[in-house]
Every structure is written in C-alpha cells, then in structure tokens.
User: Which sequence fits this backbone?
C-alpha cells in the first residue's frame, strides 16, 4: 500500500473513534421505504475528509428516545485490512446522518 | 363489571430526565445528568431563574423545585445547571402520550409529564395490573429512554398518591385495603389538594398525618375549611368519584402575567406592561373565538405581596384596546403609585361566544372598527410572526409587544394539551 493511502486510513481510524460525528452519506432508498447506508465521508481531526465503504449491514432498528424518531444501523467496514463495526444513525426530523459510535 | 383499574404515570423529574436522556441516548454523551447533583433552570441572567427540575442526587442536598437558582447554588456549590429545551419536552411528552394511547384508549393527560390511564378490563390482554405496569414502565424506559413511576389503584386520586411513593422507576399500588398501611402514616401535606396553607391550618387543629385527617369528623372539617375540608376528607379516605376526562374541558378564562426584568415604579411602564399583556390575552381569546365579561388585574410587589381587583365590563369583549383601557382603570385603583412591582397580570373570565353588543349612547367608540383592526393585526402576526407588527410604544422599550405566557421557544403546551397547543388551527375548528 502506498504511504499516502496508509496515512489516509490512519486518519479514517482516528476519525471513527469519536462518537456522534456528523457524516456525509450516500444511501439507497428502496421502494418499500427502506433506507440503506452505502458509503459515507467524515472529517478527520486534522480536517481532511476520509471516505468509508460499508461492506455489510448487520442490523438496523428504529429508536424513539425522548420521542425523537431515528434509525440506527449496525454496519461493518474495512479500514486498513482491519474490520470495523460501528453504528450509524439517521434522525428522521433533521434528515441527518451521524456516526453514532464505534464498537470495535 | 370488572374492578376499576387506574394507572397514574408520572415521569421522574421530567425536564431533567428528558434533557439527560437526550444527551445520553441521542447525543451519545457518556456523562449522565441524573447521576450527579444537577438541575434544569431558566436563563441565569433574568430574575425568573428558578429550579424547574432536579436530579435525585440534587434532592439529597435539599434543593427544591421552584426555588431560585441562587439559593440552590448555596446549598450545593458544584451543582450542574442545564438550560431547558421546551421543544424537546413537547416531543417527549407527545411520544409518551402516544405510547400510553397505544396501551389503552382512555388516557387523561394531567400535565406535560403526568397522565392517568384507565386499564379496567385489560387483564386478559396485559395480565394482572402490577405485571402490566412493570412491563409498561420498562417499555417506556427502553423505548423512550426515561424512567417513570406508575401508581395503581381503583381511582384517580389513589393512583396519583401511589405514583408519588418511592422514586424513581418504580411501580406502587394503593388499593383501598392498603390505605391504613401505606397512605395514612404520611404527613397531611403529601395529600393531593393539600397545599402549604392548608397543611398549616390542619397542623393548628392538631392534624399532622393523613390518617388523622381521615379520622376527623367531616362536619368539623367543613366548618373550618369550607368545601375543601370535605374534599380532602374524602381524599384522605381514598374516595374520589372523578372520572377520567379524555377530552380536555374548555378554558374557564384567559390570563397572562409577566415578571418584569426590573421593578415597575412608574405608571407609564406599568401601562406598557398591561398593554403588552392585553395584546397576548386578547389575541389568544380571539384565536379561540371567545369574549369575556370580567376583567381581573393582579400585581405582585417586590416583597411578594399580592393584590388583585376585578370588574365587570359593560359588554363581553376580546378587543385589545378595550381590555387595555379597563385594565389601566383597574390598575389605577389597585396601585398606590409608590410600591415597586415585580409582576403584573391580566385575566379575563366569564367567557361567552357570539354575543351581540349592546350599543351605548355614552360610548362613541366604534367597536366594530376596532374589531376589524384586531383581526387584521392577528392575521399579519399569524402569517409573519408576532414581531411583524407592533405598537409604536414598544419601539426601543424594555417590554416586548406581546409579553406573558411562555417565551416564544417555550410556547409548546405546558398548560394545554400538547397536540392542541401545537396547532392553533385545530383550535379554531369547532
């Protein structure tokens, strides 16, 4: 792997450890209204952007904490050969996606 | 008929729980306000900063809801203070009521965070009441992220009393056969409807606990306390005939008050506040299509002395101008012109709808014209916001053109059912 790419992955990793980070999202919307996150981009602590491709959607559920309707997606992705498991959250009212937390 | 089963659901320190749940469950914070001494209190700068809700640990410091923030800080120097978020509270309240309505069709919302649910005859659906309550409580905790207390009994009063027992996140029962064990040993002040003043009166009669109150002769209580004496005696004995009101009764009156940022010492300033309050009250009445015949003005001095005066108006009205003139006249009779005032209030009662106005030879005012003006002002404010149009007197004034009630961000239905308060249109429709 070229050094540039590994640096990018490193940045991606450090970006992922924070929680509740707003992300740019590419997602698909099925005919039945099902929303599926595909790929997202977020800002690393050094203010560069890194893109993450979702390899597997493990689980999704609807939450309604304090009455705020949101969908939580448990996703897998690969960063620098290491597998990552994390939760993405889509808030219906604000139409915003966040990287809610990294599990490992 | 099956035995009546009423649940009383009460959110544990609602505003604090909701803010804490939002921060933890939605914003992903690790730090939970509920685990440290913390309070929800309004803007620190203005004088009306009081404790709106407190956490369990804050309660241990003796902090009480309703006391000034400064006093609470004296009791607990490292108190965490969070600002209220009324939009969030409305959302949370609405989601709770929705969840309750999914459990039973008969839900009476008592306040933003309290409700009664009639669970009579749901035994085969949800199981015995205590288990059903446990499940409901856990469902609210898991789905909505905050904890509630559920009181179970056969009437509204006892269910509410049961809900106030040990907190948080608990289910309690208080059936008539448990009265002597669970309710009667409590101090009389804990009883619903017994406030500080009544508690003091009862204490002077030698009545300290609810049990003693229940054992007192009701005739004697009625003599001493009037109608309320009889009511609280019935309550102390666990009797409450009140049915669940699933539809909110209509307003009996419209009133607003305003605590000024600095004491009122001049008539001009007071009149400005009154005008601003009349604008608010008038607009609310016009929106609901009510007019009122009786006007009350109340004032509170800087030493917290209250006084009020009321007067019958010549005709039922909801016009800002007419209310304002009557309010000023009442105010002049009420105020000595010297005592600094911290709060003024205007209230209109004896409501009626669609009454014809008796014209008077002695009053040349064209009320129809004023009515059209009010309607135009309301329409503009509805469309472009309350600040779109204001009287010149409020330019560069310390008073906003429409004071009273909740601040703009807070006008979310604390005093009205949430649904209704959110959509003004719903109230215009019959």
Assistant:
């Amino acid at each position: 792997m070229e050094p540039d790419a590994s640096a990018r992955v490193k940045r991606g990793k450090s970006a992922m450890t924070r929680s509740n980070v707003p992300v740019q999202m590419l997602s698909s919307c099925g005919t039945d209204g099902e929303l599926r996150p595909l790929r997202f981009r977020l800002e690393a602590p050094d203010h560069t952007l890194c893109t993450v491709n979702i390899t597997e959607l493990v689980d999704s559920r609807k939450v309604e904490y304090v009455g705020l309707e949101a969908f939580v997606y448990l996703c897998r992705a690969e960063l620098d050969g290491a597998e990552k498991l994390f939760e993405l959250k889509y808030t219906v009212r604000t139409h915003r996606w966040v990287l809610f937390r990294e599990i490992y | 008929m099956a035995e009546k089963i009423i649940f009383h659901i009460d959110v544990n320190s609602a505003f604090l729980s909701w803010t804490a749940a939002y921060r933890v469950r939605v914003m992903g914070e690790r730090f939970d306000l509920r685990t440290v001494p913390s309070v929800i209190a309004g803007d620190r700068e203005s004088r009306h900063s009081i404790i709106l809700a407190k956490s369990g640990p804050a309660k241990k410091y003796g902090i009480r809801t309703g006391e000034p923030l400064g006093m609470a800080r004296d009791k607990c120097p490292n108190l965490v203070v969070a600002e209220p978020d009324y939009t969030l509270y409305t959302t949370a309240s609405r989601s709770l009521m929705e969840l309750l309505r999914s459990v039973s069709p008969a839900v009476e919302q008592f306040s933003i965070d309290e409700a009664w649910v009639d669970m009579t005859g749901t035994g085969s659906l949800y199981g015995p009441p205590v288990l059903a309550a446990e499940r409901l409580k856990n469902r609210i905790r898991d789905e909505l992220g905050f904890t509630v207390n559920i009181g179970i009994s056969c009437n509204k009063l006892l269910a509410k009393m049961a809900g106030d027992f040990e907190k948080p996140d608990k289910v309690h029962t208080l059936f008539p056969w448990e009265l002597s064990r669970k309710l009667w040993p409590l101090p009389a002040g804990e009883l619903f409807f017994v406030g500080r003043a009544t508690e003091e009166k009862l204490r002077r009669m030698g009545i300290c606990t609810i049990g003693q109150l229940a054992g007192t002769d009701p005739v004697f209580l009625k003599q001493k306390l009037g109608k309320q004496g009889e009511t609280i005696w019935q309550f102390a004995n666990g009797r409450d005939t009140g049915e669940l009101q699933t539809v909110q009764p209509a307003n009996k009156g419209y009133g607003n008050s305003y605590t000024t940022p600095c004491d009122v010492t001049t008539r001009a300033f007071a009149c400005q506040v009154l005008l601003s309050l009349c604008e608010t009250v008038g607009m609310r009445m016009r929106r609901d299509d009510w007019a009122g015949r009786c006007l009350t003005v109340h004032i509170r001095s800087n030493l917290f002395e209250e006084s009020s005066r009321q007067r019958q108006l010549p005709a039922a009205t909801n016009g800002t101008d007419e209310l304002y003139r009557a309010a000023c006249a009442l105010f002049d009779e009420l105020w000595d012109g010297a005592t600094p005032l911290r709060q003024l209030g205007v209230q209109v009662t004896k409501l009626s709808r669609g009454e014809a106005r008796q014209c008077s030879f002695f009053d040349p005012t064209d009320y129809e014209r004023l009515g059209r003006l009010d309607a135009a002002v309301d329409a503009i404010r509805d469309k472009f916001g309350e600040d779109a149009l204001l009287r010149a007197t409020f330019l560069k004034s310390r008073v906003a053109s429409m004071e009273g009630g909740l601040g703009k961000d807070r006008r979310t239905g604390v005093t009205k059912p949430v649904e209704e308060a959110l959509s003004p249109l719903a109230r215009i429709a019959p």
